[in-house]
Predict the structure of Cell division ATP-binding protein FtsE.
Amino acid sequence: MPNPVLEFKDASIFQGDSLVLSDVNVKINKGDFVYLIGKTGSGKSSFMKTLYADLPLKSGEGHIVDFDLKTLKEKDIPFLRRKLGVVFQDFKLLTDRTVNDNLHFVLKATGWKDKAEMSKKIESVLTKVGMKTSGFKFPHELSGGEQQRIAIARALLNDPELILADEPTGNLDPQTSVEIMEVLQEINKNGNTILMATHDYALLLKYPSKTLKCDENQVFEVVQRKAQV
């Protein structure tokens, strides 16, 4: 039986008082890799922000990782976000501390206390993204692609039920974008569910998967052609 980690029924998504998307009916099951595409201004960011409760869901039904977005209380937002891993286009690493300290900061903020367990977890997520030996570096000592790998590692710290990747290759060159996609594909193969907003149609052709498109105030699934071998 499919196990939905995200489901919207007849939902409307607003940015302030402006209706951005209407009649949203979307379901993402555990283990899926799903793209979210659409022109700038088509509602991708508003959709993503609604998922991690940066924007409230005012109309319709929305459930994500066992939280009801319609009835979500302010005090529950941190608990929702702990079950999500969010990867941003601009990395959002703390520039004044090392990679290890960036990850340690997140663990501490989310309630971890045992230092040995924290170190073990940090080593584990850095290994998953191929950055095991970079823990002592500062963000400015890393390339853009390496910084994004660290951002993905950070998203994995609390074993999220869903990873939201918002334009994760937006600031990267084509070769580095492919490397980051390989990391995300590997993480998905290991059982992590991923929703990735992207403008990069070359990646969709190279790694075809379920695709949702925002267009004319709607979100709908598009059928992809298979990649040319």
